[in-house]
């Protein structure tokens, strides 16, 4: 039986054999526990047996998600950077409709250069306003929510991202989910951050406002990208380290056109450019 500790070892060896910078995952190995999941092929090696998942890693990233949510929901929200993944902030405006003043809170995301440059990913994003303070996720604060030292938390986050980068480098598709916040969906060279409807409701406190954000395509629901097709018929799901089946599709399929139309509605066409943050 192959566990996930063996899987990351295979990736370490694969990176060495491929002549690229060697990646190592000592903290992920340390945190690994046995929990059967169904494997499948990865470029360079076979996964046809069960391997383990990382509930402790999921717990650490759940704490990251909660930290981001708390910052975005403050009365004077800050932009929040998850180093190596991207930066979140909230765009707020007022609208006078039918004799009523509506307040809109639109969460937005800027993809990190570390992700975008792996394979020239296209992503529509809005830069953080100059007057808005940007803070990074605090490893010390995350450490207070989980039974691990700060160094383990920091290394866990970085190694998860390194694993994520490796999958993208191998041209595979992936979803990176931040619990109760949103999902970064990557298909081919297109990347989109879709947000949880529960988070949108908590942020706006109005179902009408949330419905308008969604119908106007100012925000995309994570439900819309949950089963966006992949040409492989599967996506790698982080930070759960699962491989999930999705409809198989290429650019000409109806399902893929839906994904492309979502990107276009957010200002990113076929040759669109993107703004990225470190």
From TrEMBL:
Ranges in coiled-coil conformation: none
GO cellular component, one term: microtubule organizing center
Pfam families per record: HU-CCDC81_euk_1, HU-CCDC81_euk_2
InterPro entries the UniProt entry points to: CCD81, CCDC81_HU_dom_2, HU-CCDC81
Domain CCDC81 HU residue range list: 56-122, 141-206
Superkingdom of origin organism: Eukaryota
Record-linked PANTHER family: COILED-COIL DOMAIN-CONTAINING PROTEIN 81 (PTHR14362:SF2)
Name of the protein in question: CCD81 protein
Organism the protein comes from: Caloenas nicobarica (Nicobar pigeon)
Record gene name: Ccdc81_2
């Amino acid at each position: 039986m192959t566990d996930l500790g063996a899987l990351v070892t295979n990736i370490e060896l694969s990176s060495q054999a491929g002549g690229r910078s060697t990646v190592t995952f000592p903290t992920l190995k340390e945190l690994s526990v046995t929990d059967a999941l169904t494997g499948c092929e990865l470029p360079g090696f076979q996964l046809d047996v069960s391997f383990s998942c990382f509930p402790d890693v999921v717990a650490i990233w759940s704490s990251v998600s909660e930290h981001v949510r708390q910052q975005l929901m403050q009365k004077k929200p800050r932009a929040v950077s998850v180093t190596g993944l991207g930066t979140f902030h909230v765009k707020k405006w007022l609208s006078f409709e039918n004799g009523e003043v509506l307040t809109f809170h639109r969460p937005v995301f800027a993809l990190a250069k570390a992700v975008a440059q792996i394979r020239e990913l296209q992503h529509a994003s809005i830069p953080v306003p100059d007057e808005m303070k940007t803070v990074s996720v605090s490893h010390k604060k995350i450490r207070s929510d989980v039974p691990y030292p700060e160094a383990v938390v920091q290394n866990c986050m970085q190694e998860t991202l390194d694993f994520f980068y490796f999958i993208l480098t191998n041209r595979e598709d992936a979803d990176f989910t931040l619990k109760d916040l949103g999902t970064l969906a990557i298909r081919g060279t297109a990347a989109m951050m879709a947000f949880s409807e529960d988070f949108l409701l908590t942020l706006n406190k109005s179902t009408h406002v949330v419905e308008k954000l969604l119908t106007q395509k100012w925000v995309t629901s994570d439900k819309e990208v949950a089963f966006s097709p992949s040409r492989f018929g599967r996506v790698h799901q982080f930070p759960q380290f699962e491989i999930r089946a999705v409809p198989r599709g290429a650019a000409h399929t109806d399902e893929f056109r839906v994904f492309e139309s979502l990107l276009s509605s957010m200002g990113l066409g076929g040759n669109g450019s993107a703004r990225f943050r470190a």
